Amino acid sequence: MNSSMWENQYRNTTICIDSYENGTLSGRMFNPYLPEGDSFHSIMDFLKKMESMLNNMKFPQSYSVKRVFCPVQEMNTVAPSIESTPKGVCGTFNIKVLFRQNASWQGSVFWIEGGREESFRSVLELLLLMDSALCAGKVESA
To answer: How many helices (H) and strands (E) does the chain have?
Structure first.
């Protein structure tokens, strides 16, 4: 398998938040592994679908999974172009999961509308960063 198959494009997942009311969000997620995207209707639904996608890709592999030398399945996916990046009604985030350690995710999140990037050390910290951006977006639009 070509090592370029697992380049950084697979680490990036675009999260489009279309609705955010009283801490309940819904939207869509896009990744080269999911060329058609996937919708979610709650934070728990988002977390389960994101974790399932990461597990299926085995990238980044969970810290607690036993490593073995075995062939990785070839994937026929096409990375979306920057021009075709979907946008959320309430906000859009590009999440890059670098590690999955201590039963959580570590990486960075880029808030597209705000033009800011922050690192996160846990899923809780990721959700708090997204919440602060979505609340800031509501204040700016009011």
So the answer is: 2, 6
Whether the CA torsion 95, 98, 100, 106 is positive or negative: it is: negative
> Ramachandran region of residue 58, left (φ > 0), alpha (ψ -120 to 50) or beta?
left
Evaluate whether 6 touches 98 at the Cβ level (below 8 Å).
no
pTM for the model: 0.80
Domain that holds residue 124: 3-141
Cα separation values, 76 from 9, 32, 119, Å: 13, 9, 30
* pLDDT tens figures, 31-54: 988 878 999 999 999 999 999 998
Q: What is the number of structural domains in the chain?
A: 1
